[in-house]
Amino acid sequence: MGIIGTVMGLVMVLGNLSDPSSLSESIASAFIATLYGVGSANLLWLPIASKLKMKDKAEVSAMEMVLDGILSIQAGENPSILKEKLKTHAGSMLPAEGKAEDGAAASGRAAVGQS
């Protein structure tokens, strides 16, 4: 929307160079198209892209955990070692604020004397 509209507006400017009164309208439409393009990119498309990247990262991490588990089972590793190995994968898949909340809750229970 932004780049295409800008280019089309500038093409209209070049097509109407002989008529100075229509130049301002063509330039204005090119700038408005640029403004809409920048606005939609920053308000709509970039947040969607960042969410998709986060989901992709979580999916890749889950698939790596599954693959690591399957390869460990196939190699005949001890189940307790496999459990610890998969716990490290599961801990890396949690969001950072989830880890902080778990730590704060545990320290709060320790301060009260609960376990």
**Can you give the mean pLDDT?**
81
- Global outline: rod-shaped
Count of DSSP E strands? 0
Secondary structure class reads mainly alpha
Radius of gyration, Cα only, in angstroms?
Answer: 28 Å
Work out the count of structural domains.
Answer: 1
- Taking pLDDT < 50 over at least 5 consecutive residues as the criterion, the unreliable ranges are 109-113
Question: Could you explain how this protein is built, in words?
Answer:
With 115 residues, the protein is mainly alpha-helical. It has one domain (2-112). It has four helices and no strands. The protein has helices at 2-15, 20-75, 79-93, 96-112. Helix 1 packs antiparallel against helix 2. The longest helix is centred in the middle third of the chain and has 56 residues, at 20-75. It is rod-shaped, with a radius of gyration of 28 Å. It starts with a helix and ends with a helix. Mean pLDDT is 81; it is low at 109-113. Its main location: membrane. The chain crosses the membrane at residues 27-48.
Short overview:
It is built from four helices and no strands. With 115 residues, it is an all-alpha fold.
